[in-house]
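This is your field. Have a critical look at both lines of this record:
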Amino acid sequence: MKVRVSKEREGVENPC
């Protein structure tokens, strides 16, 4: 499952 974390940081894994 790839999480889109563009609004926070590029390349950050967030289990949200």
Remarks:
- The CA atoms of residues 5 and 12 lie 6 Å apart.
